[in-house]
Amino acid sequence: MRGVALLAGLACLSSLATGCGLKRYLPGGPALDADALAPWRSPPAAAVTYTGPARVGMPVLPVQIFGLSYDLDVVLVSDHPAWDMHEYARVDLPEGPLWLAKDARPDGVQGIVADLPDIERWAPEAAVPRRRGPVQVEDRGAGDRVDLRIAYQNLDGEPVQVEVRGKVRSAPPGKRNGSTMGHSRQSAAVVLDLERFGGAGRVRMTIGGQRARVKKLLGFYPMKFLLRQSQAGVMVASQRQAPAEGGFTLTRPGPQAVDPATGQPGWPTSGTEGWTLAAGVEPDGRASVVAERPGPLLTLRYHFVDGGLVRAEAWQVGRAAPVTVLRLAPALPDLSRPFDGTAESRFSLAVNGQEGHGVGTLTARWQDGDTVALALRPTAPWWLADRPMDGTLRYDADGGVVLTMGRVAVAD
Questions:
Q1: Phi-psi category of residue 341: left, alpha or beta, with phi > 0 → left and psi -120 to 50 → alpha
Q2: Tens digit of each residue's pLDDT (9 = 90 or more) over 67-84
Q3: Is this structure's pTM higher than 0.90?
């Protein structure tokens, strides 16, 4: 079977190429097994001593989660000197398919081109470069057979044409915890579920009118894949919460934002979102408060018990289960209230129903009377562990709360 042979081939290459960078492409198994997930089924409350009343009358978002499922994903690695990986993803929506053209530079920064009005407001939690432009797709495929003609202008304004043929595998691979291949490190700490994974067939690509060839790993293995995948995790953030009737308003970016891709003032997304608050009941029967942001693509829900975050979910339109579930054990403390010491919660990440694909810690401590210091430290798998983040929650005198979260540099 072609998909099994492809994975076996990669594993064989791995044994021949230790240290060559091949491991960045290889999927793995869950970071946690079913028994290890037990603490997250009914997480205890944070063991902290509160030293004062709440600063605000709303739940406070300490991290920005993200999730997105692709119903078809074409991944190509080219030999072009200015680009590394090219990804063509189809998202099936009630109104029809949406195609995203995603090109990554050699430094791993990946941007999106899509024919969307106000593209900076589309999936605003995803702080990645983006540009509006037509992505013309002629789809001659049927079922699992892929036959595509794609034309668009990339982020540099170069015309790109791609032809791809092949077949999506009919069964999932043995290992579904997919590597992020080093891309979007500046903005995202995510894990993947490779629901389907296999090699593409015929590929032809031109960039700026010049032929771009598929790169061959170790000189002979063509890097061209057909996938069905989902991604889930935590994004860098610049946002401000302010109380509103029935919930709160969240504005992106917050003050003095710095673009994670360029290091210059600015932010790749913007907008103002209305969040609602509602009573909920957790699976273990405890009462909770659910903060929700409905959206045309993603609905985000954060679940708080006694003010402490226990779970955050991203639900994609048209899908019966959440793309992302971030669980915390013990619950993070109520960050609207001052407390002594440092609180540490372990987190687990589920993606597309696959539990335990990522794990790590989230800590919080009051740095001063107005500021909470946050630290996200993923520990497994390795492609999540190399994306730690630090952040702050700052309470303003007018009742607003500013969340800033950025990447911590790590050695390659």
A1: left
A2: 999 999 999 999 999 999
A3: yes
